[in-house]
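Reading a protein record of the kind used here takes little practice once its layout is understood. Each number in the token line that follows is a code from a learned vocabulary of backbone shapes. One such record is shown here in full, so that the layout can be seen directly:
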Amino acid sequence: MTHVLSSVAVARIAMMALLGSVMATPALAAPIGVPTATVGAGKTTLGGEVNILVDRDLAATGAGEAESLQAFAKGAIGVDSRLDLEFRMGLGDIAVDGTNLDSDIGPAFGGGFKVTWATIPEANLKIGSVLQTVHVRADDGDQRRSWTEYDAALGAVFDTGAGRDPRQARPQFVVLPYGGLAWSGADLSGGTAEDDGFGVFLGAAMETAGALSFGAELRLLDQIALSLFLAMGF
């Protein structure tokens, strides 16, 4: 990702707007995002996410659907050009239809990493994988409840800005369509809450010639979830 100082002020305003909206958005599943390393060696990004879950059944418990309100700030560190480390911190609650579980707001956090396994220059494709987890702990009456999600994904991204003459600058605006397969599991207060399920994810990230990147993602089959995300690079 290329960084231009003149874009920093605009990126900060956009990021603040997104973080403000996330505080009031119902969510449960974190997005996979671009399934390859994108930050760049020695660089960092800071941003936020809006994750809207439409449907996630808890088949293992016989209960209905789980719901949660989560607000996250997200950071990523580029260890090298093929490895990113990601961190999430915020607040969340837990509620499950068909039960008396409806917790207060408590701390929420998560982490994971992205690895680029292969690059196919002739097709402008990169292949990578994502491993991540999100954890919420909150009080429900006199009990402390916890909700933990696990995701493992394998996918590909098409770089519309690649394949150009290396002597030319990267375009001012680049679209990165991506998709793949994801395994997802969930635990509720230490017990399995959902039959392990496989789904698909489809999305697109947009990078500007400055410090700003943003995008949207849809997860299907094991759950129906729409996510919007934004980040500013440093």
Remarks:
- DSSP finds one helix and 13 strands in the chain.
- Residues 8-22 form the longest helix (15 residues).
